[in-house]
Structures
1.
Amino acid sequence: MNIKTSLIKSPLVRAILLSIPILIPSVATAQSLALEEVIVTATKRAESAQDISMSVQSVSGQKLESLGIDNFENMSVNIPNFSVSDSLIVNQITMRGVGSGEDRGFEQSVSTFKDGVYLPRSRQTRSPFFDVDRVEVLRGPQAVLFGLNSTAGAISVHGATNKPGDDFEISLTGEYEAEFGGVRARAIAGGSAGETLGWRLALESKDSGDGWLKNSVSGDAGIIEHDMARLSFVWEPSENLSATFRWEHNKSESTGQLTEIVNGNINLPGDGALGGFAQRVAGINGIIPGSIDLRGENSQFDYVSFVENNPRFQSLDDGLEGNTYRNTLGADQEIDNASLALDWAIGENTLTALLGYSDYFYDAAVNIAGTPYSIYSGSNYEEYEQTSLEVRLASAAGNKFEWIVGAYYQDSTLFTDQPNVFDVSEVLGLAIGLPPAIVTAAVTGAPLYELGGANLAQDSDLKSVFLSGTYNFSDTFRVTAGVRYSDEEKVYRRDAATAGSGLYLKNPDGSLGFALGGAILNANGAAVGKTAGTVDSDNTMPELMAEWDIQDDVMLYARYAESAKAGGVATAGSADTSGLIYGDEQAESIEIGMKGRFLDGRAELNVALFSTDFTDLQVKSSAIGPSGEVVTVIGNAGEASSTGVELDGRILISESLTLGGTLAFLNAEYDSYSAGPCNRSRSTGAGSLPGTCDLGGQALPFAADTSASVYADIFKPISDNLNLVANLTVSYSDEYFVEGTLEPTLIQDSWTKVSGRIGVEAADNSWSLALLGQNLTDEETWLGGQPLFGYDMVYPAAPRTITLQGTYRF
């Protein structure tokens, strides 16, 4: 771990470091202190995280707010074996090296729940954190209580509420980000309306300011604006009945495209003396100067992009679906989530009913090739709506035999579309090394476009029942067994040769001209045509756990679980017919661990050893075909495994100082994948089928061998009315692949990231003022990547940000 010297020069970090020696001498006075207990609902009951027999990490909403973390991507930096990245296609979540790839048809291997409602689509996870009570991260396959497509893990987000009897409160927060001029304002009000009703309203507006990815061609990228509202009511008419209603709305827009071209000098098979992408362009411009304008593109990762903003694919709208999609680089999204939870005490048992609703649309315009000129442009559009109902009956806790039985139903509709356009003259020119003008003159006499797309309309019906029971053999030993049966039916209609697809001449005014029909590149999947059918998935998922309290505050546990993720239909336009339908993904896991409290409750240490075997892992990657073309590969890999060790702990050094951290060692690899995609460099051996490569024994993407995060929390009175508050967090990761073909040029180097906070607050908590920093060492990292036409396109993570945050409460 090599922390840059600029870290030590940071005023924020120096202030925190200088505070630590002042705090440590008070450790001797802390004998009567104890860590605050962390309460989670990972077992559908409220209990201490130290009493749950699985690897669980909980982050409070207060800590997320104090560190300026408002999305999964930023949160994952501080949680080893957990990675979140937002690509052009999906929001991809990876746990212990396993995720679902970037096809829009996939459900996530790491399932997401918001206020108890299951959210299967990746775009549903893009909504920022807002007025959150806590976020729980459950590592490893989930079988019974969270076993909805949860083969790698689950995340549960719980919003804040006010209960009857709470005092009236108002909180106002303002933030200013100094590096790029971003601002955020938040207002929260809540309290009681009578003796039986609690209410809470939260509003937020954010403008991230100037874009942090510089682009002089189409405008800077990384600009985000969003407006959010969240309303909740808690009604408790009696001691035996409680009803909680929540509604959340999020409308956001991102401007520009967060991609960069790197590694532009890679050779392709057949390139000969021309070399890679840059050499091809040089050769073409040598024939006719200015044929292809790189506009300063240097193929270096430097937060400078030259992606062109080309709206010409917008002309597909009338010929395709009659929709009006976004026509400038960026994305629009609108999300509504609502839930109604009823808890009714019936004798010693509790009946819970949770009704959930979610819908959203997502509309993005992208330069798919990521080049300074739009040889390949497109739109990503998605609409989704779901209604769900879960009913549970749970016995009282503390009985000799404790049990939970439940049923779940979900109905959803999905429409996703990806109209694309190829500039045939430019693409063929790059392929054969001739200027587009020569290609145009030789082929048609006018510019030629190939239009196409891939849309999928899908209705899904998911039914599930589950049962879990715990038998307490003694005060120190208990066994839990459970099972979930899940049945999902997806009825789909897919058209990979959307109406209007084919070849078109371009008119002098830039509009589409005469339609020639057919296709030249066939990169839009025209050969698949219209298809329809049904995909059925039914799975039985058992779980068995044993817990032994070897001391009052030390527990050993063992857990066995099987989980599954439903198959479905590929959405990528360039998907081959043979890869249109992918099957269920299966996971089988064993985890043993220890959870303990020490030093009279002032310290905690948890250890988990795990091994998970995956069968028919659902994968998507972009392979390079024999002629250098990009081919989308979607299907089920043979077998993969994820094995490792996770340690986490914290210690209360004194009233003023808490230290903590997490360390993870991981070995996640393909055990058998003999017909995998080949990368551009052909760094893996030949596969079992022509045109494939054997990825057996290779590491999975986003699977770092070692990752860690350590932190120091400081709270110290500096006068009768004023407290010092500070945090320093250092996170580290080994290197890892960032895309599915395991291209050696797309290995993210090891990194160390530092974040922190320092500020003051009133002793009565009426106000606070703090300086927040994220990625203080300004590490340059990738969230993902894709090998393309002789170069790599990557998705950069944000650089350093420094934010001034002020809050007033009354």
Note: Confidence is low (pLDDT under 50) at residues 1-8, 15-30, 267-274, 316-321.
2.
Amino acid sequence: MPLRPTSALALAAALLAPPSALAAGAANLSLGPAMRGPASLSVGTANLSLGPAMLAPPPPPAPRPAAPAVDIPPDLVHVAAAIASAEETATSASTAAGASSKRSAAELAKRLVAGQVMLRQKDSERAAVVFLDLLENAPDSPAAPQARFYLGEALVQLGMKRWAAECYSRTLADPGTAARRLHQRAVAKLLGLASPAQAPGHARRPGLGAMPELRARMQALGLSPAAPQTPADPPLGDLGPPDVQRLRGWVQAIAADQRIAELRYAYGRHLFLNKEYSAAFAELDALMPAMPPFNPRSPDVRWHVRATYIAGAAAAALGQLDVALARFDKILGARDLAEREIRDLSWMARARLHLDQNDPLEALRAYRQIGRDSPMFAEAMYETAWALLRAGRHEVALTALDVVLTHDPDGPVAPEALQLRGKLHVQQKSWKAAEKEFTALRRDFETKAKSLSAALTVEADAAAYYTEVARAEGPEFHLGALLPRGAGVFARTMRRAGQAEHLARETGALERTLRETRDLLARMESAAAATERPRVFTDLGAHWTAIDAAHFQLAEASEVLLAKAGERLAQDGYRKLEAQRASQRALVDKVRGGNSRQARQLGEAADALQQVEGAIASLRAMLLALERGQLTSGRPRTPAFFAEATALRAALADSEAEANRLRARISHGRLTLRFTDPIHAARRLAVADYRDFLNAALASASKAAGDPAINDLLARMARADKNLAAARVKVEVAAAKRLAAAIVVLREERANLDQYAGEFAELGPRANATVGETTAAAVRDVRGELRYWTLRSEVGLLDVAWALQAGEQDEAERLERTRDQAIKELDRALDQVMEAIE
């Protein structure tokens, strides 16, 4: 049950979009009478007949005489600056509130490029928000088709492949010019979704990724080790067979020379995975028919390199080994290529083909080209040991195996490396070393198998226990944590174990995503219901806060003016006035420097939650230590242990769920308080009361002072107050318009998320129960795999015994031959002596 992309992305796009994206839907906004313009007044002049004179344009207004300039004394310059700053704040806020609701093509293009940069930097979530914003809020712009295509790429990176396929399909269905340029790329992306990549453990199957021992067995049976032995059915991806057939018909309808490089590569790869090797080779090799060197500066060089590699693999599957080697050598001969993984794969393929042709020296040269920092280094060193074994260099082969076990002791090739090390000792006739090696391996595998047998003493209770572990761990569920140390290596190679782990992680990730999205939706709903709506938006909230700061600046400027005017007042009267002003200012400072009761309560709750989370973390650590200790002890697990462990796991999961719920409530409370905190209104009211007091005091003091500079500054301050009040109204109206469209989206997504929550409430427990049963079965499979490796170790001991017996028999036969030869020499010497006597 994957979430619809808009569940997590449209919400963010709705509130993060600029004013143009949210201007729609504001037509039904109801304004109070004070905010209505003259158009709302009914004057009854619909049938009024106007004469020509009245229809003529009015004469231009007569120019007003300029007011005489007033000199501002130096000690009041900063007051004039504060008033000018307030005027600038009002102008900026009015401009932002009345910004155009339509973004230009250049702005949309810049936003599209910004999303592409995020996508390249693997910031998939933010990129998806950008592309969804362009797609939903500017659907008719030239950037929309490209946004739809790149939204598909972002969704692929987020694991939402079904919705990515829908984006690519809609791109194909779009007949517009901008979309037609992306049609071939969309088909290539859909082919990639239809043909999944190699599954984990592909190195254990035949083909260019097979292990040397498996390749040798296939050669012994007369089979080609270079041909991938895939199942009869083609690999199934995220598209059904009818969709795949339509895609293939779409590709075939395009002339071969008209297909872009990305499409040719995707189509050739699809053919290769479907075992159509001849067609795949023809499609891929046609990209570079004359075999020229790669151009690292070409925008299609990555497709050329990958196509050349798969063409080589297809040629090897067809038995054309020389052609395959030529393709791999072309990749290896190129310089300055960024495709490091393809180069390492080419070296591995070249080495394996030479090893198949019994040319270990050439294979060694290829294996040595793979560096220690490559993810294929362990496999390369393991196969190097096989090549050295064929070349008769046993000591160096042992060193290579030691490097493998040191570099990746828990890797998938580690068990094979341990077995091969014992076989090398046998080849060297180091019987004691070989016996010690295989004995240690058998003991290790037997210990792990016994531990798992003890873990599955009560299988029904074990399944319930694994169910609770999956519910508690969620996305962090790891099968290796439920197995003895080293047994996780074998679990990774089993399909059932991988499926159980994947299902547990997907279920936990879906639950977390659903919870976080619902929390996000609740916070957005709180923001939409805010009393101070401009604070919901970053730009309008900044202007809203700046207006409040400007009012406080004007209050401080009024204080300076009052002090200036008070110089000409009577000393007693001014002292009394100053005392009143100080008491009023103290009230303002108290409100501005304090926090509301709700903010203090939220801080106390956050501190308490932190202590609870610490206790939960300690309990989790203790529980994990007890479980691990029980697992490694080898003692059988009783029904009482499983019952207690299951109850503790369930209690831990419930405690963490409750902690998550409290954390979400605190986060929601903080966000709500940000928009509805009464301290904002209290501060604004305190500043307003203080300004009223200052204005009244200045009105009487300025008359007594009779200073023209003070009177001029007071007039400017009155105009600034008027402009700030008008700007505040405009900002509030702009915020209401933006929220009008967002509220519609919030209502839709609330219904969607409630539906998803209901479905998950039904499917989540079933998924966890399935994980528990599948994990118990996977643990049984791992136990069987450990028994298999134990048997192989015992076979190794038998090989040592047989080799020792064969060596002793050879030594006995040699002694017998030596004895017979000595007897013959003695008989011949006696015959000569007898002949000499006669």
Note: Confidence is low (pLDDT under 50) at residues 1-58, 62-67, 200-204.
3.
Amino acid sequence: MQFNDSQLVESICFQMRESDWPRSRNRELVNSLFNGFAPFTDEEVAENQIQANYNDLTATRKAHDARGQMYSSILKPGNYFRAVCDTGPKHSRSKHSEKATRLANRIMKRSMAYYELQRAKIAQSILHGIGISVWDDRDRWRPRAMSIEDALIPSGEASELPMDGLPLFAIHKSFTASKLIKLTRGPNRDPGWQMPVVDACIKWVDEETTRLMTNNWPTIWSAEKWEERRKEGSFYGGDLVPTIDVYDFYWWDDDGKESGWKRRMIIDPWGTPDAASAKYTPSKKKGGLYENPSKAVQGQFLYNPGDRIFAANKGEIVSFQFADLSAVAPFRYHTIRGLGWLLHDPCVVQNRLTCKITEATFETLTMLMRVKSMDDVQRALKANLFNRGFVDENVQFIPNAERWQVNTGLVEYGYDRNRELIDQGSSTHSQNQDMSKGVEKGQLQIMAELNATTAMLSAGLLQYYQYQVYEYREIWRRLLNPSPNLVDPEVNLFQANCRRDGVPGSMMKDPEAWEIEPERVLGAGNKTLEMAIAGQLMAFRPLYDAGAQRKILRDVTLAITDDPARADELVPEQPQVSDTVHDTELVFSALMSGDHVTPRDGANGVEVAGTIIRMMEAKVQEIQQTGGVGTPGDIQGFTLAAGYAAHYIKLLEQDKNSKKLAADLNQQLSKLGNLIKAMQQRQAEVAQKAAQQNGNGGLKPEDAAKIAADRAVAQAKIDQGKQSHAQKTAQREITFQQKIKQDQAKHEMELHKKVLEHGAEIHKKDVEGAANVRRGGIKSFDE
């Protein structure tokens, strides 16, 4: 069907708007509750003399908790999605896919507008189960958020999810005059814009703005100033400047040679009735868009590209995000319900009950008196009840026993029961684990609670992940398509960066060759569940291979820190080979050649033993693929390598924190030992079989010579190893003995030196004493 009649388009849009009005009223009730408005209307307050009328914000807090969990699920990972290509050179697909993923997510993560788009979609999905984003053109990668009421979707079977059979839809938009001027001016203007209608709309905005800006007549009535204000855009920048409301109408057309979505745009006659009345006479120029001037209704289109296909699929225009909590299938667009619907009634009752309890509390605090007449009332009001005073005998205080008593138990039961309903409704979106202290839970209880929480995880969140893929795919398609005339510089920047980093152009040509998978966090955004899963993964981490262990460590680091940048720093996606691993790989080659290598203390035992075992597994698999027999030299090399790894495993066993890891390494080494023994038995069977088939010793001369040569080489290597080891041991013994002799000689020299110094000191003292005696005798003789 062709929609070349603007009145037909207007009629369809009006019908969809009218059908959406009751649903819009229901959404308004949900929004009012979660925005914190009071539960009783002004009429109810006046009629029932309600004293307490306030919202306890329970619903608002529940929505905040739910948004926090979904923020963590969608926004917390370092990347929004991961792109994997299945074309191009097989040996480099993974590397190039990682580069393209990193470059695309860098642009998206740096875009605050896209961050706010995600926040808006999450908030809408929480309240109403639907989040919508729309692209206004065909080039820019980033969509914008759209309110649910601005999307007009027909009812019935056509709206069954995922709405693949949707025949048409409309999007309500509002253009400022400056935005409309920007879209319809310039050398690359879309020819679908009907410029007479555009000019009429802008003229209407000018007239309305002039009518509102009564205090700025000098600017209005000066043509030069008018033009300058229009040029700088400030003329249309005020809050009072009206907007041009339009309906952007799309329908699926498969009548022609090319199928796809076509587009028309009309002015909203109910939002801007004056602008909607703008008409113009179609051009009579032959070959123009409207050749027949009698079809004046066509002049009411604001945008009409004719038969041109605007989009190949609906996802290139709009992206719907669903987090549906409804229970009845088949699920349709207009039957989708979110957390707001689930909590609305219990939270409204909760607010009313809270207000009544508050009123009853204040009434209990009120001092009541019994009087017989109005004169008694006046006397009671004059009584001084603070320090000294009197009470007239006609004034009697009403005791508590005679006052109306609230059934406290029933009120508390009703309040708690309603609170339980709210908690149950929001349990899938809240951090509701029992964090009470003093109760130590066993492993079985923890696992039971973990399974229960996993079972209660919101189906809406799982839907959100799935439907988010479609938006990511469209963003990826737009990033791969070059933006003409630099309409979106970020698209051109992404492609330039890909070429700079060596991503082949052949991989960037076909968006369908890429698989897009959103990044997910542990626990689906629930922090308690996330930490529980992280603990379980760390407990089983040694059972995984090296690549999986690194991914687990990265996920656990992100769960603990909530910081993707720090997780990337601590556990990078592309690990660098450590010196220990590199040296161990060289040692393994030497061991497999039959050389003896002395273990070096102080090395990382986990890396050394793990590397040896990993390389032994690879070598064993290689031999098994070639018959599973091997050579005696292989057996000898495996024996040396196993002994080398066992040395470091024994060191790990001495550390109580590494005993489990050492046990796992021993288990892997034991499995390899069984495979090596089986290999050795196969070698013996082959030799025995060959001996039975051949005489003169049982072997052919050439086979016997080869085996003898292999044995000679192996024996030579063993002897050489023993000789080398003996020489090294003897050399170390000689060095040790020489060092002892050197130390002993040094000690004797130091001792002899000390004896000589001590004798010289005694001799010095004797000489000084004799001299003192002689001096004393001479002094006595003189006297």
Note: The chain has a mean pLDDT of 76.
